[in-house]
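Entry for the shared binder. Reason: the reviewer on the internal report wants the predicted structure included alongside the sequence.
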Amino acid sequence: MVNGAIGGTVSDMRIGELAERTATTVRSIRYYESCGLLRSTRTGQGHRRFAESDVDRVIRIQEMLAGGLSTSTIRELLPCLDAPPSQRTGHLELRLAEERERLERQQREIARAQEVLDEFLRSVTGPSEAVVPGGC
């Protein structure tokens, strides 16, 4: 064990093991660290070491990214997730609701863009004209 991580002690988990246990890549782990989403300690030789709790943290980061959250939003929300429920202020729930609304707006914008493209396609092709890939 090495001292210095957020929760006190750090296991001797190397970056490759963390990547393997979270079904991600070493590159992603380094990216999460560069964005301030994850912290490691360094050995005397400069090798990263991670805590056992970082397995759950990386999985949570992956879930939030898959949910459409940016790394800056995730960085904002991680302290809320780390806090005991009794100490949470409601900011987490508010921000997640805002992000959900943002995604719903994007869905509406995409649906509208599809409608516009469909209408444009109908206007440039006749009902019986076949679309040939690669042609004009």
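Summary line for the report: The first helix runs from residue 15 to 21.
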